[in-house]
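Could someone model coenzyme A with this protein?
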Amino acid sequence: MDFENILIEQKDYLAKVVINRPKKLNALNKATIEELHSAFQKLEEDASVKVILLTGSGEKAFVAGADISEFAHFSVDEGSKLAAKGQELLFNFVENLETPVIALVNGFALGGGLELAMSCHFRIASDNARMGLPETSLGVIPGYGGTQRLPLLIGKGKAMELIMTAGMINAEEAKEYGLVNYVVSQEELTSLGEKIASKIIRNSSVAIGKAIKAVNSGFKEGVNGYESEIKEFGDCFATNDFKEGTTAFLEKRKPNFPNN
Ligand code: COA
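Reply:
Sure, complex below.
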């Protein structure tokens, strides 16, 4: 995979995707969104990838937002298309992947950057991270799912305040709010991501994919999460992973999942 704006490292069932525009604090321009889409698509299809870590290059930013220089002159129609295309190609796409994606928030995660981190299945931050949705300070609102995902993660009142004030919270506040699961030093961020990934990798990828679907169902308009859980649960019984997991338990040995 050859990209201009992102880097990908792969080893031992783990892929690390690094957004690599450090001079622009990894701001998401159109090209980067398209590259991320095709990278995530390929990694999802790659059976040797069981967890994806997503981070920003440099020590300052995860992603400082959508690239303001690209949309400053947009019309109503272009603005709507920007949000719709971005949500389709990246934000909803990442959320609905069956391969777990963990955001390693290594610095500023603002606007589209926080929206991207929130699209990931969960988040870990370094202690220098700063998070917020500053769009109203630019005369616009979050358009990559921020008005929907932030209230789900931290509650409506706190989300309203963050959006209205266009303020930033630090990593400890983000942990207190439930926006990130852990806060560690920048040096420890990748190793904690890898440690958690190694625990996920031991389990059935097929079951994890179905669990992601069932959890996400509860947050989708017109979808009954409990019904989705019943369907995904039932489907597990047709998988070789289920056979292996239950057989290994009964034989008192560790499972060796075929991942199908
Ligand atoms: N879009 C485009 N370019 C961006 C950007 C964004 N969202 N965020 C940062 N950059 C660029 C800056 O324009 C600057 O480029 P330049 O060196 O060519 O002038 C470079 O990244 C470094 O940013 P700078 O502002 O000089 O760094 P700083 O340390 O002084 O401030 C921030 C850091 C994150 C507070 C500041 O960059 C910022 O407020 N960014 C915009 C955040 C935002 O509103 N995001 C939501 C967008 S919808």
